[in-house]
Amino acid sequence: MTGLCCLQHAQSHTLTCTAINSDTTPSSSTTTNGALLDIDATTYFRDAEYLSPFCTGSTYPGFRLTPTLLYQPDSQFTIQAGIMLNCIAGVHGIYQWAPTLSIQYRPTPWISLAIGSFSTSSHHLESPLISSERWFTTPTEGGFRLTTGLKRWQSETWLDWEHFLVPWTEDQEIFNAGTVHQLTLFHSHTDNQLFLQGAYLVRHHGGELTTLNTIIETIYNQMVSLNLRHTLAPSDTILIKLPIYFFQNPLDGIRSTHYQDGWGIHPQITLTTPLSTKNNWSLVSTLGFWRGHQWEAPLGDYLFQSVSMYRPDAFDPSRRMITFGAYLTQKKPQFQFQLETQLFYDIEYHNLDLLVGLYLKFHHPPPLARR
Question: What is the pTM of this model?
Fold first, then answer.
């Protein structure tokens, strides 16, 4: 498991065991005639020291504040309006800011449709497909999110319109779309679980209104994973994940990717250990092996890819890495603390890359937003 760079994504390892639901809007049937304030704040210090020729390191000290007004006129509709502020130390003023507005519609208790703008999400996918660094560099997504939640099947389908098309210029439209599904195959009374997870991602660049010879392409990534969660005595859990990744870019000639197709595997084993039930401390440790062949993913972490993010002439069709992560977390009703350490050892280049993160999160939801 990789990509748990912030407390917003810190629970992706458990969400993939229970339910896929990135929706952050209220699910309560409580109604209110007035607007309520939801405050979500995260302070962070994240340092990546990379020696890999495929990816550069970065340091992000700062904070992210997202105050949001919520209004729920009835049990099926919820309106959210707010602002996202992302401040990074060393940058004068606000590094990034963006207004957010979304309307959520729940026609039934198990399906939800939200349209508008949202805080950036990993969509419960890991670093080979969606880089954890996007939380720092891409503050919002705009489009729609459709989520479902049944006892044995959960899903999320989304569209993120990243860039608007400017007609008759080289400034073309860019959008990302994807769907993630999880099907529980077996769930015992002792909470042992066998489940299948699949994802299909699309990134499109181009547009119809153009007279310029610009690249019009669509890049595809897929993932299929068989996962097993086993509960140990007294409350430790082991999660084994066996994902297979695929990549295609059918465009011939000039294209943004170096390869036209590729694949990757990333088997992992994750141990979750509660350290203190009274103070809600837990330790998550994960060990994995990455094997990639001509792997490229437009939204993925370049540490896993077969092409370099900063050297166009640097590429290697075969990538092999050992990955390790440790996440020390304390949860309180409104506060969370996390210390993150990730190690990546490149077998081919004999490089050891290090990522360390420290995060403090405060979340004060109003009564109707509390689950």
Answer: 0.87
Is there a contact between 61 and 44 (Cβ–Cβ < 8 Å)?
Answer: yes
Task: Report d(CA 266, CA 343) in Å as an integer.
Answer: 15
- Element holding 206 (H helix, E strand): strand 193-206
Q: Which residue has the tokens 């899903």?
A: 155
Which residues fall within 8 angstroms of residue 213, CB to CB, at 6 or more apart? none
Cis peptide before 298 (omega within 30 of 0): no
Distance CA 342, CA 50 (A): 11
Contacts of 33 (CB under 8 A, 6+ apart): 73
**Polymer length of the chain:** 371
Give dist(CA 124, CA 126) in Å, integer: 7
| pLDDT tens-digit profile, the chain (371 residues) | 433 344 443 333 333 322 233 334 444 434 555 689 999 999 999 999 998 888 888 899 999 999 999 999 888 999 999 999 999 888 877 788 889 999 999 999 999 999 999 888 899 999 999 999 888 888 889 999 999 999 999 999 999 999 887 776 667 889 999 999 999 999 887 778 999 999 999 999 887 655 565 778 999 999 999 999 998 877 899 999 999 999 999 988 778 888 999 999 999 999 999 987 778 999 999 999 999 999 999 999 999 999 988 776 778 999 999 999 999 999 998 999 999 999 999 999 999 999 999 999 998 876 654 43
Phi, psi (5° rounding) for residue 15? -65, -35
Could you identify the residue written with the tokens 């891409």? 138
Nearest to 253 by CA among 213, 212, 221: 213
- Name the one residue in this structure whose structure tokens are 């009564």: 367
What is the torsion angle, in degrees rounded to the nearest 10, for the CA atoms of residue 251, residue 252, residue 254 and residue 256?
40
SS (H, E, C) 143-202: EEEEEEECCCEEEEEEEEEEECCCCCCCCCEEEEEEEEEEEEEEECCCCCEEEEEEEEEE
- Alpha-carbon distances of 347 from 99, 221, 289, 318, 319, rounded to whole Å: 44, 25, 10, 11, 8
Alpha helices in the chain (DSSP H): 12-18, 134-137
Cα atoms in the 13 Å half-sphere on the side-chain side of 327: 27
Whether 203 and 191 have beta carbons less than 8 Å apart is answered as: no
